[in-house]
What we know:
A: Non-ribosomal Peptide Synthetase Peptidyl Carrier Protein, Chain A, 4 helices, globular, B: Rossmann fold, Rossmann fold, Aminopeptidase, 3 domains, 17 strands
Amino acid sequence: xxxxxxxxxxxxxxxxxxxxxxxxxxxxxxxxxxxxxxxxxxxxxxxxxxxxxxxxxxxxxxxxxxxxxxxxxxxxxxxxxxxxx
Amino acid sequence: xxxxxxxxxxxxxxxxxxxxxxxxxxxxxxxxxxxxxxxxxxxxxxxxxxxxxxxxxxxxxxxxxxxxxxxxxxxxxxxxxxxxxxxxxxxxxxxxxxxxxxxxxxxxxxxxxxxxxxxxxxxxxxxxxxxxxxxxxxxxxxxxxxxxxxxxxxxxxxxxxxxxxxxxxxxxxxxxxxxxxxxxxxxxxxxxxxxxxxxxxxxxxxxxxxxxxxxxxxxxxxxxxxxxxxxxxxxxxxxxxxxxxxxxxxxxxxxxxxxxxxxxxxxxxxxxxxxxxxxxxxxxxxxxxxxxxxxxxxxxxxxxxxxxxxxxxxxxxxxxxxxxxxxxxxxxxxxxxxxxxxxxxxxxxxxxxxxxxxxxxxxxxxxxxxxxxxxxxxxxxxxxxxxxxxxxxxxxxxxxxxxxxxxxxxxxxxxxxxxxxxxxxxxxxxxxxxxxxxxxxxxxxxxxxxxxxxxxxxxxxxxxxxxxxxxxxxxxxxxxxxxxxxxxxxxxxxxxxxxxxxxxxxxxxxxxxxxxxxxxxxxxxxxxxxxxxxxxxxxxxxxxxxxxxxxxxxxxxxxxxxxxxxxxxxxxxxxxxxxxxxxxxxxxxxxxxxxxxxxxxxxxxxxxxxxxxxxxxxxxxxx
Lengths: 85, 623
């Protein structure tokens, strides 16, 4: 999972957004990264994160999709699904 | 086109090294510089984080003014409060946001508990959206509809007044943005009882609540410009109770801070226009009067005509107009005199600077002629190099970025919100004219052989009266706006001013001045507090328009006269220095006071014994 070139490229594209929102320029994320692993990743940051990703990628997520996210891998899957449609 | 607004296009785009500059910022000036870029929500949050860190390390953030803004809402405010803090920096504020608990509007207003108790709050933002109002939509039932509107407005009014009296702070009350959806199509807004009808009527009533103590934030106007369907992000509301789409936090915060800033007396008074390719299309020196593009019939000419229209509208709002152009003076004036399609004429322009000096020097000269501070000036120029030079030399001056299409010049200028206002008096309406008279007085002075004969030629008449209800708004305006000729820079709200009128221990003066060139309106305000046989001059301020006219001497004579009647034998007064009132540092020395003591913070206490006071002669008649 998440080793595909698309997933790797997306992770690379998401990293600066995560760094920006979490205000940590050295933040490194992987598919397994969860909210608990990252300082500042609270429910408010989650909203800012989702909104920033939507803006950057030109996508829209539903409330159900947002609340189902458990880790960065889920986010990668969700983005991939949206892009396939 | 809404991008122009939501992305704050009048501000320069952030530099490529923004990240590094954020990392390295260490003081108030760094913070303010970065805040003056067009930052998005995430960048503002980051900047707010830096501000908090500096505060935590007790870094001295002056000259930023510490300001505590209370926020009450039925929605999530935590996501836009960092944007507010960072945007405050743009307006010279070290802004701290104190949020009431989520959706605790009524509790905050009506119970003994309050998030604000024990904190010195400077203003409270009441941001209630339509979800937070008990609007019962029953289409077609006009009686119930009117009752529902009345109830909602009564609620908003009570909430505003209660919170204001609890915190002793002025209120910024938001009006209501209706949802994007309509049920009955075009008919929806006209049928009493529909949600859109209710909200329209509530908003009408909210506009009536505006007072010196309640400023209305026209968030409806902002949301309409951005698009209601964009403003209300339904998913964000469902997920996090965000009152509007998070991407609009920057522009929303800017609108809030505009009001905070104007309430603190910072407002723009003067618009300086470049000529070639700003006021008209083309270059007058090359193209000649017949060759420049201005007026109807040509799209570029119409675009520049709109710039002129907007300049004239602003002049009607009391903004004084001036010109700064790299041109020969006689050539630059030609279109104003001879071109039939020009709306702007020389009579609209207070100061006309057409020469080959750099723009910064010209702007400085204009400010001096008009006795205006640089921070009250907006400079409009199509040329990016000129804008850069002025921004660099005169960071106090507001210089909007402009797109290349002149059709958007006016919109960009107005979207920047420089001319934000929380009130409008008869004086405001005449202000542009008054500044112009002032420029003529400056002319007169350079012609008069000496100062004394100049002042005599003005035939000045000053009128003294205590504060009264009909002048209260203007007094409040002077007290909140005067920064330069202001000995103590104490700010009083209109409520406090009304209290002063009633206080038997307090003597107040409002002073008006007319002269041979016109009416200057109310130009000075004093508040004296009596203690036994001493008058303590709590407040003495004067409009800089009438500087150098010996008015302060005339004022002293009048105070002394009245003080003696009241059995007072000594005046005590204070000079509290600020970055902006150095002009009055020697005020009391010049008036014959002696220094009692100077405190560590720079405050000086002066006194003047009234025994044997000699009344001098001043060239001002008193009525």
